[in-house]
Amino acid sequence: MLYERGGIMNEYISDWIKVILNCGFDNTYKMAWAKSIMECVIEDRSDGEELVIDFDSIAEKALKHYWNQTIYFDLIQGSNLKKPPEMITYTKKLISDYRKATGSTQPMRIEKIDFRKHGIQRNYNETVKEIHKTLKKDVSWRFLNYESEKMELYSLNRKEGWIAIEKTHAELLRTYQETLYPIINYRWTQMLESFNFAPRISKKVRAIDEDKVRRSPLTKYRQYLDLMNGENGRLCFYCGKEISDREISIDHVIPWTYMFSDDLWNLVYCHKGENSRKSNRLPTESDIEDLEIRNQRLIEKMSEAGKTKSKNYDQLQLAIEKDYVRQFWISFKG
Fold this sequence. Notes:
The protein is mainly alpha-helical. It is built from 14 helices and nine strands. Helices cover about 50% and strands about 10% of the residues.
């Protein structure tokens, strides 16, 4: 049980926690709704006896969360794979519009994008409008249901599209934000883990929230990949042709967006053009078979070169023993 100084935690906050921890696992809508409301409350600086939050403001926050989770990691947000949640469909459409407008597949946090500059402000506005409709229809009233009770977490006006939170309750949400945010993220992560076979779900969610989605330089792996050099120098893993210093790139065979880690067993040399064209596509079974063979040869080369006392050698050996290449490939296919 959670306590505050001098007694049991305020009943209003306890009710929020009850609702969050008992939401169903059909999709992540209620977590996006709860987190977005929290952000609106924390950002508000208005006076008055109650805080009124319109659905558009909540929809913009929800879009932010879904955009960032989708453009970086393409996380599945619902239990029905054949029929994704509407809000994810709207979000992916906007991501597609953004990529067409910019000509880039480089992931970008939504907070850093100027949709007006790219000529797709209208697309953004329409997406917010559609998410607003879904929140009104499916989420705003359902969130208040807890078993046979209806929680009084906020006043709801679905017709006009807003919720109202009493001033004292808004102050409590601000006070307990460091308790509520981790609980929302914990529940959201639980849901994502039930929908996705991808590794490191919790780490991905934390990284997105903390704006710490970073790709580390891969040059440190060249000392190992260079051990595979043949008579023709560095060869492209995909086409088998020699790569010039100007054209060389290091690629994750199973995409980084899925793995969210740099592992020697999953890294290969290739042409920059091959890397760009490949993007986040599913590796072929031929690619996987070639990678398995490459890893067997690479660990032999590392042994011959006396590079056995390193973390990368241990990880490569474990990957071979545990059949990581095929296991992660099969999970990625799913």
